[in-house]
Amino acid sequence: MKRAIAAGLALAAGLGVSQALAQAPANDAAVQAHLAAAKAASGLDFAGILGVTCLPDAPPPARTAASGPRSDPPRSAWYARPQQVFDDLYWVGTRIHSAWALKTSGGIIIIDTLYAYAAQPEIVDGLKALKLDPKTIKYVIISHGHGDHDQGARLLQDRFGAHVIMGGPDWDVVAAQPNMPGGGPPKRDIAATDGQKLTLGDTTVTIYATPGHTLGTLSLIFPVKDHGRPLTVAYSGGTAFNFRHEPSRFDIYIASQRKMEKVAADAGATVVLSNHSIFDNAYERARLARLPRLKGEPGPFEVGAGGVVRYFKVLEECATAVKLKEFGA
Q: How large is the angle between the packed helices 304-327 and 29-42, nearest 10 degrees?
């Protein structure tokens, strides 16, 4: 099942990396080696992150005041039905961006909150469609301070009194955006610390500082159950290299991926999730989670302990390759 989900992306991304290997300068053996290692770690499971990070496109042109206000895309382009993916974890994202609802005996923890235009239909209305009460949202964890993940936080904070958790550096960035869509930035609340444990009811989420994508990026480890069977999830908080490229920033990013490789391995994580569907195929996998399974068959989100480590290895190797290609060391 998992191989079928990723096959199309794998073909395109795999061919792209092969071309990159062939086109790299003949004396650039180190770059080629890291690209090859990333491709090997990706296999058929993680073609999305392989393509985005090992073969990054040119950044989009900067917006200026003359560009005019950004218009929201039509609902038909992003809306997706909410899905239950584990006994206590629900996907309430769009076709492109992911948000997650972790149900505990003490209430709900929301992980990432989408663009402002999607927060009501996907998160609030999505919870209701899943027979969950959005009034029981107690905490919101923002993986990093970019609009596609943090704009919905103010709505959940104001309407339901949810506490918002974000990395300290990203709180500073968000606070400097008074005109953020969705009613402005969330009011500063909890600045996460590395290794912080958030316990709500019967569930504990461990938060790790993984700077790189942004300086305040957070990644997570938390438990879920699949038909009563306990599993551990590793949540990757930031992926693409859409930051100012300089050697020290890549070093920070690479160190964070190595950190999460070890953290995930030590925790025995067999599920890896992210906040963009292209990175973990969340949109397709969430829909496939509705299908019946044979006894003992793993769910579509399970990639195994080795698969989780490979996910972070792809990011580490791609970041190393891009750094070497751009700066030579």
A: 160
With both helix axes pointing from N to C terminus, report the angle between 2-23 and 29-42 in degrees, rounded to the nearest 10: 170
According to CATH, the superfamily of the domain at 2-57+77-327 is Ribonuclease Z/Hydroxyacylglutathione hydrolase-like (3.60.15.10)
pTM, two decimal places: 0.90
Q: CB-based contacts of 242: which residues, under 8 Å, 6+ apart?
A: 59, 213
> Do the beta carbons of residue 308 and residue 232 sit within 8 Å?
no
Residue from 1, 237, 238, 204 nearest 88 by CA: 204
Confidence of residue 145 (pLDDT cuts 50, 70, 90): very high
* Phi, psi of 256, deg, nearest 5: -65, -40
137, 203 in Cβ contact below 8 A?
no
Phi/psi class of residue 274: alpha, beta or left (left: φ > 0; alpha: ψ in -120 to 50)?
A: beta
Statement: residue 2 has pLDDT above 60: no
Lowest mean pLDDT among 12-26, 73-87, 200-214: 12-26
User: The tokens 């492109």 sit on which residue?
Assistant: 96
Pairwise pLDDT comparison (109 vs 24), residue with the higher score: 109
* Separation between Cα atoms, residue 141 and residue 147, nearest integer Å: 14
With a cut of 50, say whether residue 127 has pLDDT above it. yes
Each domain of the chain, given as residue ranges in start order, spans: 2-57+77-327
